[in-house]
Amino acid sequence: MDLIHQIIDQLFQWVQSLGYFGIVLGLMLEVIPSEIVLAYGGYLVSTGQISFIGAVIFGTIGAVAQQWILYAIGRFGGRPFLEKFGKYLKIKPKHLDLSERWFEKYGAGIVFTARFVPVMRQVISIPAGITRMPLGLFTILTLLASIPWSLLFVYLGWKLGDQWDKIHEKAAPYVQPAILIALALLIVYFVIKFTKNQRKRGNKDE
Questions:
Q1: pLDDT tens, 49-89?
Q2: In this structure, is the dihedral angle defined by the CA atoms of residues 62, 63, 68 and 69, taken in order, positive or negative?
Q3: Model confidence over 130-184: pLDDT tens digits?
Q4: Distance (Å, rounded) from C-alpha 143 to C-alpha 137?
Q5: Using an 8 Å Cβ cutoff, are 157 and 45 in contact?
Q6: Angle CA(174)–CA(24)–CA(72) in degrees, nearest 5?
Q7: Closest to 148 (Cα-Cα) out of 107, 99, 188, 112
Q8: CB atoms inside a 10 Å sphere around CB 70
Q9: What is the DSSP string of the chain?
Q10: How many CA atoms lie within 13 A of 136 on its CB side?
């Protein structure tokens, strides 16, 4: 356990020494959960080492870049690659199965909504890649979801200062409403999509 703590401490020193690019790389590699990396970025803001806007911008860039990697794995490696190497990416078969069902049921809109749901935040990019979802649309939806996520955790880390490591405790009251809002948006998206499909069928029948 001490070794793990030493490794994590070393990673945080690495993020600190690289500043903005440390945040980007920390999010891309996902060795440490994204919310913790962003909160640490907020702590660096509180010490004056980086700016708040810079932390949010580079945090968003890192979050999108990470999802590009997962999208590419799904698009070029597919299910066989993930069944063989998914454990190294902390992706379990049950999570992959669930993400595929969500994607099949809700379509492209789930790429935005799932960003606010733990675990699914990363995994949903894989079926998007497997189904060859347009990269431009994938990027836009990911960007729109990553901005508020980065804002929230950088802000909380900034306000917590030296106590940034308590981020999960402080973030819970904010994350739960975010999940509910995301689910509400998903329902609205699904209703709109269903209505459009019904209209298309009606036009064909005529």
A1: 899 999 999 999 999 999 999 899 888 887 777 777 766 66
A2: positive
A3: 888 899 989 998 998 889 889 888 998 898 887 777 766 666 666 566 666 666 7
A4: 10
A5: yes
A6: 95
A7: 112
A8: 20
A9: -HHHHHHHHHHHHHHHHHTHHHHHHHHHH-SS-HHHHHHHHHHHHHTTSS-HHHHHHHHHHHHHHHHHHHHHIIIIIHHHHHHHHGGGGT--HHHHHHHHHHHHHHGGGHHHHGGGSTTHHHHTHHHHHHTT--HHHHHHHHHHHHHHHHHHHHHHHHHHGGGGGGHHHHHHHHHHHHHHHHHHHHHHHHHHHHHHHHHHHHHHH-
A10: 0
Q: Within 10 A of 92 (CB to CB), how many other CB atoms are there?
A: 13
Instruction: Please state the pTM of the whole predicted model.
Output: 0.74
Give the tokens for residue 101.
Answer: 């069902």
Residue whose C-alpha is closest to residue 31's, from 65, 55, 7: 7
Q: Which residue has the tokens 């379509």?
A: 107
First to last CA, the chain: 68
CA 121, CA 182: separation in Å to the nearest integer? Answer: 12
Residue with tokens 């030296």: 162
Tokens found for residue 206: 């005529």
